[in-house]
From TrEMBL:
SUPFAM superfamilies: C-terminal effector domain of the bipartite response regulators, P-loop containing nucleoside triphosphate hydrolases, TPR-like. The keyword Transcription applies. This is Tetratricopeptide repeat protein. Residues 99-240 form the Bacterial transcriptional activator domain. The keyword DNA-binding applies. TPR repeats lie at residues 824-857. Residues 911-931 are annotated as: Disordered.
């Protein structure tokens, strides 16, 4: 049952969207009091005081309360809400989220506690949308009036907080109109004045910002007899000095994405359609144009050409994604995956990407707000796939292509629909002439007409026919027409079952003209998982040497059957790919080889990233599959970044084909890569697939291992309950099977989860057994980070001497194994211990060493934490300038990582270095186990 209670406006109740009749004002006042104190007992005396205190009291107050309760109970019957009589009063029991006031408070709390500004903005915006007017509108009692005033002030404060967040996100341009109006309504609010001045300054209007300051200064003097506050005066001075600190702190400035596909080389025609696209520009709302039409009709061709024509209109960049709405090899791309790709393109560091998918979407919209950008959403499956990717800023232009008519996008979002039909005869003729020359067509007009009839006005078909003709420039077109005529098994069109053209005949014409080896490569490419494919993967797919594969690919490129969209990387139009798969006749050996190539190469990359990690048994690749090896971590990480979509497709294909071991082997091979990027959502997804695959086997070790890793990544997402359940399940399996290393690993991860929850006593109950077990079985590399973990837990509990011993052991072992991450971790804890035992110089020395190591391995999250701790140490030594400089570095890193809570704490330290109550330690991140 959907029940909603409103206090932030008229006091009202709804069930399934239909209002309930509550009755007269006094009864609504009683309901308001009970809802404000939802699930709490309100005494009869409190009710009388809050409802009747400023009116004439009823002769029998208790009887009046009882009567009100009877009427309210009857009114709330449809809502299923109870009002219970308690010994001291009455209690209305309701889910707090159904009361707008309590939901508002919860959203504000969560927004303030959010780890990134994008998430905070989303939550605070949602909270403010709950307000429908003044609280308890139409009701007047002394208690309600007082609470109303408090809530209005609270809302004002939340609006100010939201503006601060939005300014940090760089949304000054979008904020300016509302800020100016709001400042006019609240001319003496200095915080609001500062926000408007900052927005004006960042918007390129420093003179207006200075003028507004003078207006506020005069008003304060005239009305209150005071000068502006120190923060407002400081901002005025910074604007006068054009202080670089006033620039947007953590909006990525370096990333102006240029993701458009290459400009079509031989575009021609489509004059009407280009004019329609031009006409859409200049509107006051988000411009959305949906280009629809059959496959091969040239939708992407048209959209790309138009976008390149208007690059000057999008100086802030162009985002592009192929949503794979009709990819024959798999499902359409989830909108969340596209958003994550956009965040990468916009320069958001992996560690700064919010965990929550909705927060990622909010961050994406925040980053493009106020920007003159093009968002090109190619090959969409339907409107539902597109809607989460729409920006909210009228400065952006959205271009969508799809084979379907996106009526939902038109109806709900005002998109302009542009239907793309076949080229006219004149346009088709001109396009073919552009490819092969007008003289050649004029020499054989009848044959030209036949060729164009076969192509039926589809640019894709014309380009393939032209490629065949260009390959043999000396052949008469009649010879080529004879070849094509032989392929006249006019089958259904490959799109939507419509008999418009036999693309299959056109494809087969080009296919039959290929050399035998190129034809075999073409067919095999139709079976490859993923969105594109590299040269070495093709070599394994086809079991051919790389040099011969290159020769075949050049032949396929010349025939327009494949495109090399990046050096060494190839892809096909999805209709061509579907035809290629038909030619391969389900070559299971080729599929096995390409899966093995990806699995074994990913395994090699993981071993390069984490050489001290215990290896798994992976077997030998199929004959003909040649996995790649890596010279260093940088090359391995780059390969994983490029191939990630294909590796996810390989895991899915392996699951579909019952290759269960390879499903969890892919997950294992991506583990370190995901952990270092902080992409726990991806980790949870692949490990959930791995758990399901392991459960299809009798491999108890795999079942424990997959649960262990899934529990680890659940901890990274804050899903502690699920993580604990999985880990205890993994521990039970490891104990049943006598798997001592598995038990040790589970205890280590359980300790990490309890650390993430701030319960170091519980963490120690697992980190100590983990250390003991690693020692018993002689895994010295793992023993090092177990020592470091125990040392951190003990340090947090004030057990400094024991902690120091463990960290020194960890340091010695880590250096012996060349494990820089554990070495840095141990030094960090030793610095913490030294600071808290009074050896401040030693603390600085440890921190500096740890800082250098974390910087070497690119662990900027822990780098920020160490800088924060170093600042405290400098401050304790009286080195206030060094403390300020160090905290400033920590602040910049926290801002870049969107750690709003930590950034706010450091700002407070910078504002008032004299405080002695500030925390000695930046909170440790919820970083899952190293292994």
């Amino acid at each position: 049952m959907t029940v909603r209670f409103r206090l932030l406006g008229d006091v009202a109740a709804q069930v399934h969207g239909h209002p309930l009749a509550i009755g007269y004002a006094q009864l609504r006042s009683v309901l308001a009091v009970l809802l404000v104190e939802a699930n709490q007992v309100v005494s009869v005396d409190q009710l009388v005081d809050r409802v009747w205190s400023d009116r004439r009291l009823p002769r029998k107050p208790r009887a009046a309360v009882q009567h009100s309760m009877t009427m309210l109970r009857n009114a709330l019957v449809p809502a299923g809400v109870t009002i219970a009589r308690r010994s001291t009063g009455y209690q209305l029991t309701v889910e707090p989220e159904t009361v707008d006031l309590h939901r508002f408070r919860r959203l504000v709390h969560d927004g303030r506690a959010a780890g990134d500004d994008g998430r905070a903005a989303t939550l605070l915006e949602e909270a403010l949308k709950l307000w429908g007017g003044e609280p308890f509108a139409g009701l007047t009692t002394a208690w309600l009036d007082s609470l109303r005033a408090t809530l209005v002030q609270h809302r004002h404060a939340v609006r100010l907080e939201l503006v601060d967040v939005q300014l940090r996100l760089g949304l000054h341009a979008a904020l300016l109109p509302d800020l100016a109006e709001w400042a006019d309504e609240n001319p003496l609010d200095e915080r609001l004045a500062a926000q408007l001045m900052l927005a004006l300054y960042r918007g390129g209007r420093p003179a207006d910002a200075l003028e507004h300051y003078q207006q506020v200064r005069k008003l304060l003097a005239d009305e209150l007899g005071t000068d502006p506050s120190p923060p407002l005066r400081r901002l005025h001075e910074q604007i006068l000095a054009t202080d670089p600190a006033l620039t947007v702190p953590h909006r990525p400035q370096i990333a102006v994405p240029h993701q458009l596909p290459a400009r079509p080389r031989l575009f021609t025609g489509r004059t009407r359609e280009l004019a329609e696209l031009d006409a859409a520009l200049g509107q006051d709302t988000v411009v959305i144009t949906a280009v629809g039409g059959l496959g091969g009709m040239g939708k992407t061709w048209l959209a790309s050409h138009w976008a390149h024509q208007h690059l000057d209109r999008f100086p802030d960049g162009q985002l592009y994604v192929n949503l794979r709405g009709f990819d024959p090899t798999g499902q359409p791309m989830p909108a969340a995956t596209a958003i994550r790709g956009f965040l990468d393109a916009l320069g958001v560091a992996p560690s700064a990407v919010p965990v929550d998918v909705d927060a990622q979407a909010g961050l994406y919209r925040s980053l493009v707000a106020g920007k003159r950008m093009l968002i090109f959403l190619d090959n969409a499956a339907d409107s539902a796939q597109v809607v989460p990717l729409l920006p909210g800023s009228p400065t952006c232009v959205v271009l969508v292509t799809s084979r379907r008519h996106l009526s939902g996008l038109v109806a709900a979002h005002g998109a302009r629909a542009l239907k793309l039909d076949r080229l006219t005869d004149q346009e088709a003729h001109r396009l073919l002439a552009t490819h092969i020359g007008e003289d050649r067509l004029a020499a054989e007009p009848g044959v030209t007409t036949e060729l164009l009839t076969r192509c039926a006005g589809l640019p894709l078909a014309i380009s393939i026919v032209a490629a065949r003709a260009t390959t043999h420039p000396d052949f008469p077109l009649s010879v080529l027409a004879d070849e094509l005529r032989e392929q006249n098994d006019l089958l259904d069109a490959l799109d939507a079952g419509e008999d418009l053209v036999s693309l299959r005949a056109v494809f087969s014409w080009s296919y039959n003209a290929l050399s035998a080896e190129a034809a075999a490569v073409f067919g095999a490419l139709g079976l490859a998982p993923g969105t594109d494919i590299g040269l070495l993967a093709i070599a394994s797919l086809t079991a051919l040497p790389a040099a011969r594969v290159r020769t075949c690919l050049r032949e396929l490129e010349q025939a327009h059957l494949v495109a090399q969209h990046a050096p060494g990387r190839y892809r096909m139009h999805d209709l061509v790919r579907l035809y290629a798969a038909e030619r391969a006749y389900h070559d299971t050996a080729a599929v096995e080889r390409v899966i093995d190539f990806y699995v074994h190469t990913a395994y090699a990359a993981e071993r390069t990233l984490a050489p001290l990690r215990q290896p798994i048994a992976i077997g030998s690749p199929a004959e003909g599959a040649v996995p790649h090896e890596f010279e260093d971590e940088t090359v391995a990480a780059a390969w994983l970044t490029t191939e990630l979509p294909n590796l996810l497709a390989v895991q899915k294909l392996a699951a579909e084909q019952g290759r269960h071991a390879q499903v969890w082997q892919v997950a294992w091979s991506l583990d370190t890569f995901f952990r270092r990027r902080g992409t726990y959502h991806d980790g949870v997804a692949v490990w959930r697939a791995a758990v399901a695959a392991a459960d299809h086997t009798n491999d108890r070790g795999a079942q424990a291992m997959t649960r262990r890793h899934l529990g680890n990544d659940c901890g990274g997402l804050g899903l502690h309950s699920e993580g604990l359940r999985l880990l205890h399940g993994a521990l039970a399996i490891s104990e049943q099977t006598g798997d001592v290393p598995g038990q040790a690993h589970v205890h280590h991860i359980l300790a990490s989860l309890w650390q993430g929850r701030g319960d170091y006593r519980q963490a120690l109950r697992h980190s100590v057994p983990a250390l003991r077990l690693f020692q018993d079985i002689g895994l010295s590399a793992q023993e090092a980070w177990a020592h470091a973990q125990v040392g951190w837990d003990q340090a947090q509990l004030g057990m400094y001497e024991q902690a120091r011993t463990h960290c020194e052991n960890a340091l010695t072992s880590a250096r012996r194994h060349h494990d820089r991450e554990v070495e840095a971790d141990a030094l960090d804890t030793l610095g913490y211990i030294a600071h808290h035992t009074g050896d401040l110089s030693q603390a600085l020395d440890h921190y500096r060493q740890a800082l250098g190591l974390f910087r070497d391995i690119g662990h900027d999250y822990l780098e920020a934490n160490i800088l924060e701790r170093m600042g405290h140490t400098h401050h304790a030594l009286g080195h206030h300038d060094l403390a300020r400089a160090t905290w400033q570095q920590a602040l910049e890193l926290c801002q870049a990582q969107r750690r709003a809570g930590d950034a706010a704490a450091i700002r407070q330290l910078l504002d008032d270095q004299s405080t002695s109550s500030a925390s000695d330690s930046c909170k440790r991140p919820e970083t899952p186990s190293l292994r």
